[in-house]
Amino acid sequence: MKEEIKLKSYPHKHLLGIEGLLPDSINFLLDLSQKYVIYLKDNGKKLNILKNKTCINLFFENSTRTRTSFDLAGKKLGADMLNISVASSSIKKGETLIDTAMTLNAMQPDLIVVRHHDAGAVKLLSEKVNCGVINAGDGPHEHPTQALLDALTILSRKKTISGLKIAICGDIMHSRVARSNIHLLNTLGAEVRVIGPATLIPKDIESLGVKVFYKMKDGLKDVDIIIMLRLQLERMSGSFVPSIREYFRFYGLNRDKLKYAQSDALILHPGPMNRGVEIDSELADDLDRSAIFEQVRMGVAVRMACLKALVKCN
Amino acid sequence: MKEEIKLKSYPHKHLLGIEGLLPDSINFLLDLSQKYVIYLKDNGKKLNILKNKTCINLFFENSTRTRTSFDLAGKKLGADMLNISVASSSIKKGETLIDTAMTLNAMQPDLIVVRHHDAGAVKLLSEKVNCGVINAGDGPHEHPTQALLDALTILSRKKTISGLKIAICGDIMHSRVARSNIHLLNTLGAEVRVIGPATLIPKDIESLGVKVFYKMKDGLKDVDIIIMLRLQLERMSGSFVPSIREYFRFYGLNRDKLKYAQSDALILHPGPMNRGVEIDSELADDLDRSAIFEQVRMGVAVRMACLKALVKCN
Amino acid sequence: MKEEIKLKSYPHKHLLGIEGLLPDSINFLLDLSQKYVIYLKDNGKKLNILKNKTCINLFFENSTRTRTSFDLAGKKLGADMLNISVASSSIKKGETLIDTAMTLNAMQPDLIVVRHHDAGAVKLLSEKVNCGVINAGDGPHEHPTQALLDALTILSRKKTISGLKIAICGDIMHSRVARSNIHLLNTLGAEVRVIGPATLIPKDIESLGVKVFYKMKDGLKDVDIIIMLRLQLERMSGSFVPSIREYFRFYGLNRDKLKYAQSDALILHPGPMNRGVEIDSELADDLDRSAIFEQVRMGVAVRMACLKALVKCN
């Protein structure tokens, strides 16, 4: 992607967030991901790259797409995947997160993928283990592989990220996807905007280098990429948002609001979607405008790249 | 099994039900299943037939035997198996079934096995994915691999299905097993009867080509095969059935009622059994009369055959 | 470990408990475990020893460490591992344990690992299947692989078990870990003591060949090994224990109480720990005194040995 000298390996032990990563590190992971996109397109045979390696999927929150995506990515690379979900976890017996970390560490895995409902929990865990750790989402903090797969999707359609105008719309406050995307897209030179109701935008968000808009009409003007966020429906009643109908009217993406953006603007959504809440159902299914399921495909490639980059192969 | 020219491959993309399958298609799957019965009997080594293939087990209902049977079948063939259960599904986040289908499809699996509590849900899902789909039970609609394993069990003991008198007994109305069996056994030339209380037999069932009996004494007369159905115990109180004791008295299979059938009549049950409700416990354990655990063994072979038949191998 | 002639194979079909095992059988499993400790230390590649074998992990109780440990051990040996947890079990449909056993048996696995909340349930299950069964914990009865990994940990630090003074502290009454350890350590020639409040020590425990102490000061005197047991917090209110604070004061292990033991006494705990209840948090993390996470590492080696020993390889 760039003419400068590229990294030969990912220079960190963990992938806990996008914040703080240099452009070279991000580009290293994206370049490797693109190789796996081609591999997957060629209906590639199972690889042996991680054949003797063990990866633990440790999920403290329910997840279909992310857990399955990592599981599939690991198996494609030949790794042994161990899945641990919170329902069957000793956490219910009162074990601390640190003890869980040290217990799993004693089993000598080669990598641990963690999703946790608390911001910072994955970092805490990473400090107690010898192997690499990938953050698969920690509370409202970061979800780095989601930002990487979003970037990969944008690259596949727009060839570059630098210079693009990108709007992230919806519940910015509670979104780890927003935070990771802001860091990544800023680092790679995009102009990032956030759009949403004042109740769902943190006060200090401008310090992350984004412009804040409260109206879709203003924020979507001339953007190349629209990243719609999932609205947690449990926030629909109460102080954040008055009602689903009103939210959709002001912030739900439909053909009318899309007109404010560039004529070839691309729509992303991390899924699972609430059709008719944050996005119009018919628009979500328009493959020319929406890359929602392409994101899922890119996600497998990104997780393969991250697993490959973080597992130490002798 | 027949002298006519046999199919060289299964002629459909999916296996959504038995209804509408031609005898050749059913026989193709049964022939292939019999090869795997022999393979399993020889304590066969793991095969590489599906080595580079990924199969998703997507279960919206709890299941031990069916999910484990598919999981084992896939692993014996060398496939990578991804298990997704409803508890960890995004469905709980409000995702539609179609979005789940399209999300999993974007991960490019080679096959999806689905169990769902709603009739028709598996067909709906199959229309949104590129790969083959096997229905592992959709509400009260169909459960095709169960009918195939029942047929395989009957064939192993009786050598043929054509011309046999077969009674399906119990809760016909809510049973996907009954429906799939009626289609399969009729297609292969058996004489199929259903027996049960009027409250548990659908009014239009005779249009499927079965004779209806309300008394075990009448329905079991001269039958070669008795397929007992599981009674959902939550239906025991209320309008369907007066009480467990009364149900067992009139419709539970025991040695006395068995005398109405042929002297070598074989008993099948899809499991899990309610001992003392639909079948006498001692009779269930009589290996000469009951093929209940042989059915489980046949089930692994049938699932191997179905996976092999539906996954496209280059 | 001994100069006598060693066994060439494990002489039993199952591993249901330590009670009744001869020293040779225990030593056979420990010797084999030590080979796998070395294998794991060398960061060993995946083995093919159980390549064509299928092992079922059947857990009727939640578990992270034990289930994951068996899962990992099996995968390291090349086996196909099928995980069945109670949440997705037909037990919820009212199937009996025996029918579950016979159903899984019909799938012809090579080994079944079972955890169940009732004492004796695993033995009952083992009588209904053709393959070997490993008890991964049955109610308050036995947990033989835990006792083996405790012994392996002790051996790695003390080189022998014979002649050691070993105290097991806490809730003896409800502990399968205590029971298995008492049998194993007695069989290999240790002097075993139990310490705890009278409400948590069974009346007939001395018949197992242990000395009973009600005060840590008396029981810990001169011991080489201290095995702390997990206190089930649901027993903290009620007739067994007055309060967490009082329990910790009298029976929680801290530096003060540790002084009663030998100066090089080693601390074990089966995990998950209740820090500040049965053990002081800082002491638990002292790697010179506490072998708690070393036990986990030994656990993988022990499970590899048990799987290898019980699966019949042609």
Record keyword descriptors for this entry.
homotrimer, 5-stranded parallel β-sheet, 9 strands
Structural notes for this entry:
Three copies of one chain form a homotrimer. The first copy, chain A, is an alpha/beta fold and 314 residues long. Chain A is built from eleven helices and nine strands. Chain A has helices spanning 23-41, 65-76, 97-106, 121-126, 144-158, 176-187, 216-219, 244-251, 255-258, 281-284, 292-310, and strands spanning 54-59, 80-85, 111-116, 132-138, 165-169, 191-195, 211-213, 225-228, 266-268. Chain A has a five-stranded parallel β-sheet with strand order 7-6-5-8-9. In chain A, strands 2-1-3-4 form a four-stranded parallel β-sheet. In chain A, α4 (121-126) links the parallel β3 (111-116) and β4 (132-138). Chain A is globular and about 55 Å long. The two termini of chain A are 28 Å apart.
What is this structure, in a nutshell?
3 copies of one chain form a homotrimer. With 314 residues, the first copy, chain A, is an alpha/beta fold.
Classify the secondary structure makeup of chain A into a structural class: alpha/beta
Compute the average pLDDT of chain A: 92
Gyration radius from CA atoms of chain A, angstroms:
19 Å
Largest sheet entry of chain A: 5 strands, parallel
What's the oligomerization state? homotrimer
Count of DSSP-assigned helices of chain A = 11
Helix content of chain A: 25-40%
What order do the helices and strands of chain A follow? HEHEHEHEHEHEEHEHHEHH
Number of strands of chain A: 9
